[in-house]
Specification:
The chain is α/β, with parallel strands linked by helices. 24% of the residues lie in helices and 34% in strands. It has seven helices and 16 strands. Strands 1-7-4-5-6-3-2 form a seven-stranded antiparallel sheet. Strands 11-10-9-8-12-13-16 form a seven-stranded mixed sheet, sandwiched between helices. It has a two-stranded antiparallel ribbon with strand order 14-15. α4 packs parallel to α5. The longest helix is centred in the C-terminal third of the chain and has 14 residues. The N and C termini lie far apart (39 Å).
């Protein structure tokens, strides 16, 4: 099957994760081939086409995307219900590279979406993992129950700006303390750009490997239009997962 052709799929399940975040589930065989960190283009008929991380990747094609509405396309996608149709093409880009030893995973808001399938892959790889889950407040924290089914509870750290659950404060501060106290071979992160930049700076000081999933507007998804440039890179073909050198060049 040509991954660049739009595949019409039915929405089979919708979960209200938080008051402003939903997860939409569907079956798609091509998505079962995706690596954590890759993205798909999601077509909302008559509205728009958006790049989305996969928050569920299973061998049988059971897949999901997680949405927080912020503009016309994402609002329309968020409002869809069971049995309605969306179009999928991809997966595109490069995913996270699995490492041995120990890993620290960090997600903020919907940036936690690719961290869940990544957790599953790393555990299958016998990698020891710790997950830091960040949000502004308790009601905006997603995937905590899913994470508990994959990762030992003691290895899950929640951080909220207002302290309504877990540690009160900023995610980068918690990450800095973990890297001071533990031997971590690689940091994986996805979330708001300011958070990624701070965590990148911390890993530079600690001399720790980092892989970060970045975001920007994507149109063609195959490197032709050039709209998704981040510095010298095109996110759709060079990313969305960037290594230390690429991050350093793109976050200037």
């Amino acid at each position: 099957m040509d991954k660049n052709k739009i595949r019409n799929v039915n929405i089979i399940r919708v979960i209200q994760e938080t008051p402003s975040i939903r997860t939409i589930y569907f079956f798609d065989k091509e998505c079962s081939k995706a690596k954590p960190g890759q993205f798909v283009m999601v077509w909302i008929p008559g509205i728009d086409e958006l790049p989305m991380s996969l928050s569920q990747i299973q061998k049988d094609g059971y897949s999901s995307i997680t949405i927080k509405p912020w503009q016309e396309g994402s609002k329309a996608l968020y409002d869809l219900e069971m049995a309605e149709n969306i179009g999928i093409r991809g997966p595109y880009g490069n995913g996270f590279k699995l490492i041995d030893g120990s890993a620290l995973l960090i997600g903020g808001g919907t940036g936690l979406a690719p961290m869940i399938p990544l957790s599953q892959k790393l555990i299958e790889n016998k990698t020891k993992i710790k997950l830091v889950m960040g949000a502004r407040t308790k009601t905006e924290l997603v995937f905590l129950e899913r994470a508990k089914k994959i990762i030992p509870k003691k290895n899950i750290i929640t951080v909220t700006d207002d302290g309504s659950v877990g540690i009160k404060g900023q995610t980068p501060d918690v990450v800095s303390k973990i890297l001071d106290q533990e031997d971590i071979n690689c940091v994986y992160v996805c979330g708001p750009k300011p958070m990624i930049k701070k965590i990148f700076e911390i890993t530079q000081l600690k001399n720790t490997l980092i892989q970060a999933s970045l975001e920007t507007k994507v149109n063609c998804s195959v490197g032709i239009c050039g709209r998704c440039n981040i510095g010298e890179y095109l996110l759709c073909v060079d990313g969305p997962v960037f290594d230390r050198r690429m991050i350093q060049n793109s976050l200037k």
